[in-house]
Design a protein that fits this description.
Number of helices: 7
Distance between the termini: 43 Å
Largest sheet: 2 strands, antiparallel
Strand order of the largest sheet: 1-2
Length: 114
């Protein structure tokens, strides 16, 4: 396991469930959270310069152009929404989401299909 993986697991163990409420109230944010996946990034290096959330994200390169294409929106909008998800700590730099973010997506889809 790399230092990146160890630090990532540390952050996953400290999820803030309350931020998932923002997803239920914000459809554009929900959309981008639903699009977030491991195929949109690659690990540039496995050694964060520091033990911070931003240090962890500095280890990955995100394909904003592809995300924008998937969302059918301008790249600047994709960057903005992904930054919001990141700051709310609803997504991780391995392409996964918090447990509550995944539950919020399921609830949103269930409600929309009912």
């Amino acid at each position: 396991m790399s230092h990146f993986d160890d630090l990532l697991e540390s952050f996953k163990g400290r999820e803030n469930h309350e931020t998932a409420l923002q997803l239920l109230m914000d459809k554009p944010l929900m959309r981008y959270c639903g699009l977030w996946s491991p195929t949109l990034l690659h690990l540039a290096h496995g050694y964060p310069l520091d033990e911070t959330w931003n240090g962890l994200w500095d280890c990955v390169v995100i394909d904003y152009k592809r995300l924008a294409e998937l969302a059918d929106e301008p790249e600047g909008r994709a960057r903005f929404q992904l930054n919001r998800l990141r700051e709310l700590r609803l997504i991780y730099p391995d392409g996964s989401r918090t447990a509550m973010a995944s539950k919020a997506i399921v609830k949103f889809m269930t409600d929309a299909l009912s």
